[in-house]
Amino acid sequence: MSIAKGRALVTGGAGFLGSHLCERLLNDGYEVLCVDNFYSSSKDNIAHLMGNPRFELTRHDVTFPLYVEVDEIYHLACPASPIHYQRDPVQTTKTAVHGSINMLGLAKRTGAKILLTSTSEIYGDPLIHPQTEDYWGNVNPIGPRACYDEGKRAAETLFFDYHRQHDLRIKVVRLFNTYGPRMHPQDGRVVSNFIMSALTNKPLTVYGEGQQTRSFCYVDDLIDGLIAMMNSDDTVTGPINLGNPGEFTIAELADLVIEHTGVNPGIDYLPLPVDDPVRRQPDITRAKSTLGWAPTIPLVEGLTRTIEYFRTSVLG
Ligand code: UDP
Predict the structure, then answer these.
(1) pLDDT tens, 51-63?
(2) Is 71 near ligand 1, meaning CB less than 6 Å away?
(3) Domain at 53, CATH number
(4) Active site residue 179
């Protein structure tokens, strides 16, 4: 029997990003321990990994301590789409804060390297554009998005304090909007909403006038970035932005989905959600120079793959 490359824990491993990460780590020769409470994820995402002898699944909520032996911890667990994280906002903050404390405690005991997937939401409704890691953000601390934004900000604080106080090997990345196969079809995110609407011939729901912008990164690129960050020198702590700098208005995205699904059911304009950021675009200079990482998959190509996934695996 071949010796595994190491033992990696992926919290939130049955989620959209987590499942892709588990798959990649298995392909790279790791033993993978996937931990998930299935709050916003699905066993379907990891069903194809269950037969692999190097893959292990544990149902566990990271707000409770976890005792396992691992070499690397990818700490992803947290509902991440606005409708999921706003459904039980107190639990969202607990997941971000208590979950991080528990996983940092695990890293401290085992000596494992630990990576946090933080978020572009920590920049709030940004006043500088594009967003660099040096920008401290513009977050409403008492609004409906605060449970996630402030939860992740507190998680970053904890990571850096554990690093300074206990010499933990930490890695903090800030993920911008990511899309691709295995996005939850009902998570309310713009890419999945638009594709689902078009493929079921219902009007695309554009919030506001659709002039707000986002930058969309295809999942395979993002996973490359997570792996590069984990494998970087111990002196590299981050924070580092990971995202695709291509910036699009939501109206432009709607046009692209209509064009590439070949279905035009029209557009419904709905009210803009509270505290919805107006512009978002990562500055990835640091990721390029420190990790040698940059995304390679343009939006149209990634959208085409994602549309195909929704057509065949979700609606097929
Ligand atoms: N949005 C939209 N229609 C939808 C879902 C989202 O116009 O059906 C907008 C939303 O208001 C936001 C952007 O698309 O400006 C991205 O929303 P999403 O929930 O995907 O992610 P966010 O970046 O806001 O966390």
Answers:
(1) 999 999 999 999 9
(2) no
(3) 3.40.50.720
(4) no
